[in-house]
Amino acid sequence: MGDRYRQRVRTLLALPDQGVDAHLIVSLENRFYLSGFSGSAGWLLVGGGERFLLTDSRYAEQAGTEVPDYDVVVSPSLAGGVVKIIAEQGWKRVAIDSPHVSVQGLEQLRQAGPLVQWVPQAGRVETLRRVKDEDEVACIRGAAKIADRALQQVMEMIRPGTSEKALGIALEHAMRECGAEALSFPTIVASGPRGSLPHAQPSARIMEGGDLVTIDFGSVFRGYHSDETVTVPVSAARANRQQRHIYDIVRQAQKAGLDMVKPGVKASAVDAAAREVIAREGFGDFFGHGTGHGVGLEVHEDPFIGPRYQPDFELEPGMVVTVEPGIYRPGSMGVRLEDTVVVTSAGYQRLTRWDKRWPT
Question: pTM above 0.85?
Answer without folding.
Answer: yes
